[in-house]
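hey m, so remember when u said the tokens were messed up on ur end? i reran from scratch. heres the input so u can diff it against urs
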Amino acid sequence: QVKLVESGGGLVQAGGSLRLSCAASGRTYNIDAMGWFRQAPGKERKFVAAVSGIGHNTHYADSVKGRFTISRDNAKNTVYLQMNSLKPEDTAVYYCAADLFFRATWVELTSEYDYWGQGTQVTVSS
């Protein structure tokens, strides 16, 4: 089993920054890609960003490209999401996800990922 725990969420004013962390524990050796998704109230869970197993390749949703940066530290079994220039529309619960056998074609699909964290709330005020 793999457990994912997100942290770093909170309340921030528009234009501010937050850094989310996701720590993996348990049997983490076979984790390949990792990603971030978000879900606003009454909306579907949507893709935000993903990073490949080694950390050399990243992919972002158009809505966050240029503002958010995903990275990982495999020695610490942790993935990060640096969020800058935050907007009220970024308000959502942010979820970390891990994929045991990554297929790039399906990077934006929730069904691609095998494990999920409990989520952390990000609220951006105007």
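this time it looks ok to me. The longest strand covers residues 18-26. if urs says something different then somethings off w ur setup not the seq
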